[in-house]
Amino acid sequence: MTDANTLFVVAGAILLVAGLITLVRPAIVRRLFSIRDGEPAKYGLLIAGMMLTAFGMLLAGFAIGYTTAAPLDLTPQTSS
User: Fold this and answer.
1) What is 2-58 written as a DSSP string?
2) pLDDT at 22
């Protein structure tokens, strides 16, 4: 695995964990960013948490898939 792929996997894992924390414990994020308590903030944090989680999974998953997949040969085979 190259350094770039490792960076993408680590960044994806960090985003995944941050998104899950935002989903499960929005009070921590609300206190961290000084967001007032209310229904719009609640739904906004749920949406942001799910988006961070999905992006982290996508980023890490594609980096792992790119590393482990065999190259696809699309060159036409000619018979002699």
Assistant:
1) -HHHHHHHHHHHHHHHHHHHHHH-HHHHHHHTTPPPSHHHHHHHHHHHHHHHHHHHH
2) 93
- Answer yes or no: are the C-beta atoms of 63 and 9 closer than 8 Å: yes
Decide if 59 contacts 15 (C-beta within 8 A).
Answer: yes
**8 Å CB contact between 6 and 64:** no
Distance, in Å, from the CA atom of 57 to the CA atom of 71, rounded to the nearest integer, reads: 22
Measured CA to CA, the distance from residue 53 to residue 28 in angstroms comes to 16
User: Residue 3's closest CA among 67, 79, 77, 78?
Assistant: 67
Q: What is the pLDDT of residues 46-76, one digit of tens each?
A: 999 999 999 999 999 999 998 888 888 888 8
